Amino acid sequence: MRQQGDDGPKVITSDQIRAARGLLGWSQPTLAKAAGISISVIKDIEREARTVRTATLLAIEAAFGRAGIVFLDPNGGGRGVRFRE
To answer: Does residue 79 belong to any structural domain of this protein?
Structure first.
């Protein structure tokens, strides 16, 4: 899965999205509602079945951020997710 119009690494990965949902106990429909996008988009992102627009990933990241989730970049020892301190 890559961000549309971006040749570099994406901001967050499908694995991180699934992990964040797991930390919060969120279903795909819950995330879709919180991010303001369709359930089918969430499913496709998690299966890496579509090119993802940057705006979509930012909406997902913002929804998780409002719930207290922080995405870790690979420079800190590997990609991951955690609760905000």
So the answer is: yes
Structural domains in the chain (count): 1
Can you give the residue range of the structural domain that contains 72? 14-83
Q: What is the pLDDT of residue 75?
A: 75
What is the distance between the alpha carbons of residues 85 and 70, in angstroms, rounded to a whole number?
A: 9
Amino acid at 29: P
CATH number of 51's domain: 1.10.260.40
**Does the CA dihedral 64-66-67-72 come out positive or negative?**
positive
pTM above 0.70, yes or no: yes
Total residues found in the chain within this entry:
85
pLDDT given for residue 74 in this prediction: 79
Give dist(CA 76, CA 11) in Å, integer: 14
